[in-house]
Design a protein that fits this description.
Blueprint (H helix, E strand, L loop, with lengths): L3 H7 L21 E3 L10 E3 L1 E3 L6 E3 L13 H21 L8 H13 L14 H12 L5 H21 L11 H14 L2 H20 L26 H14 L1 H12 L4 H6 L5 E2 L4 E6 L2 E7 L2 H4 L13 E3 L4 E3 L5 H20 L8 H18 L2 H12 L4 H10 L9 H8 L1
Antiparallel strand pairs: 1-2, 3-4, 5-6, 6-7, 8-9
Length: 429
């Protein structure tokens, strides 16, 4: 026999054309909310009593908790419980009886839900607002994501909710959200930006909605059914030997801090965000190694080659927690988000280098990583087979697999064939 929780949390829109039977008004007490006097450490719930057919007396029924206690603010818990109370009252008016078999009522509600696509995504909460639902999703994501990634989720969600408020102000509840609305938003992003940015919005919004599905707040994550668009990623070009040497010479006098920052990208093959994460304590002065959080692993260790070690200033007296690269010195405090640090050096590079050398948008800090990996691979392949060269290179660059390295080398055009003119001439004979 279906339980009260199964029926209450299954129905999506209980208030349809059903007359209210006044004869039942004394069969149960009005549902009430227990809020523990505002104590969030205790469980909040909806409770009511129903007349026992055997004794004829009102008897307290098992309280309804649902997902209310997963929320950590009074406002959020009350929003959920008010919705539960409203839905429970409607169920009771429809004839729900905790002492009887409610299969017929359950089937009736099930049939109505299936026939009404507009409510097919609601499982548990017919009145939960979009903001409350997505705030719940973000709170769970906080335990899994880095601050930088979480900030990206929040920004994309903010843009989506602002778009809804502007174009569909009538959409306030989570059950009103559907595939068509999200598709329209993604199309708007596509027209204003790029396929890649549109796909990024799709990925993050889908991830947030998946949390709601996993916690029975929505029936399904319909965003997964929205296709990913094919996009051609933009790639930074590699520098010519002449331009790279000119940049290094210029920075020796103009901006030594930026030059050393670039050398960590060039010689140690770190990504700009990885250089920004470095602290003085990440460098082992005895073994000439460096530990850092990489893109594909929580902690990676690399050697620091002599070409870079010789350029390092004395950091032996620095506090281990000192940020290695700050705006004005090597080693110090810099209380700002990681993304802000990366953006700072990106803008500094544009102002100091790109504007001076009149470099286009396809040249950037990543270009140094591409340039030096290309140099290294071509030097290795002269002394060994391509497979041996890639095997050695993978240890240096830190790629997680041979397949990933090979794709990267293809993307930056590091692998070039020998001159094949003689074969073309021979084919003409």
């Amino acid at each position: 026999m279906p339980t009260l929780n199964e029926i209450l949390t299954f129905d999506k829109e209980i208030a349809y054309e059903t007359a209210y039977d006044l004869s039942q008004k004394h069969t149960y007490s009005n549902p009430k909310i227990y809020s523990a006097n505002g104590d969030l450490a205790k469980r909040w719930y909806v409770y009511f009593s129903y007349r026992n057919p055997t004794t004829g007396k009102l008897k307290r029924v098992t309280p309804i908790y649902g997902i209310a206690n997963k929320f950590k603010t009074k406002e959020e818990r009350m929003t959920v419980l008010v919705a539960y109370r409203k839905s429970l009252l409607k169920l009771l008016r429809l004839g729900y009886n905790p002492f009887a078999d409610n299969t017929e009522l359950y089937q009736k509600l099930n049939t109505k839900t299936t026939s009404n696509p507009s409510t097919s995504n609601v499982v548990e909460e017919e009145s939960m607002t979009l903001q409350v639902a997505f705030d719940f999703s973000l709170k769970l994501k906080e335990q899994l994501l880095s601050p930088t990634t979480l900030r990206g989720y929040k920004n994309k969600l903010k843009n989506f909710l602002q778009w809804l408020e502007k174009h569909h102000p009538e959409i306030e509840k989570i059950q009103q959200l559907n595939k068509k609305l999200v598709s329209d938003f993604l199309n708007d992003v596509l027209l204003k930006t790029s396929p890649r940015n549109r796909n990024n919005f799709r990925t993050d919004l889908s991830s947030l909605l998946q949390v709601l599905e996993d916690n029975d707040i929505v029936r399904q994550n319909f965003i997964k059914k929205i296709p990913v668009l094919k996009s051609i990623p933009k790639r930074n070009k590699t520098y010519t030997k002449e331009i790279q040497e000119e940049i290094f010479t210029y920075l020796e006098e103009k901006d030594p801090i930026l030059l050393l920052y670039i050398k960590f990208i060039s010689y140690n093959f770190l990504r700009p965000i990885e250089v920004c994460r470095l602290k003085a304590g990440d460098i082992n002065l005895a073994t000439h190694t460096i530990q850092f959080k990489a893109k594909n692993s929580p902690l990676k260790t690399k050697i620091i080659p002599d070409i870079l070690w010789e350029d390092l200033p004395d950091i032996s007296q620095l506090d281990k927690e000192s940020i290695l690269f700050t705006p004005h010195q090597i080693g110090g405090e810099w209380n700002t988000a990681m993304g802000n640090r990366r953006d700072y050096f990106t803008k500094r590079f544009k102002k100091v280098v790109k504007d001076h050398f009149n470099l286009g948008s396809d040249y950037g800090l990543y270009s140094f990583r591409h340039t030096y990996i290309t140099k290294l691979y071509r030097a290795l392949v002269k002394e060994s087979s391509p497979f041996e060269a890639k095997s050695k290179l993978m240890l240096i660059t830190g790629h997680s697999s041979m397949k990933a390295l090979e794709k990267y080398l293809r993307d930056i055009d590091a692998e070039l064939p020998e001159d094949y003119s003689h074969m073309l001439k021979k084919s003409d004979e």
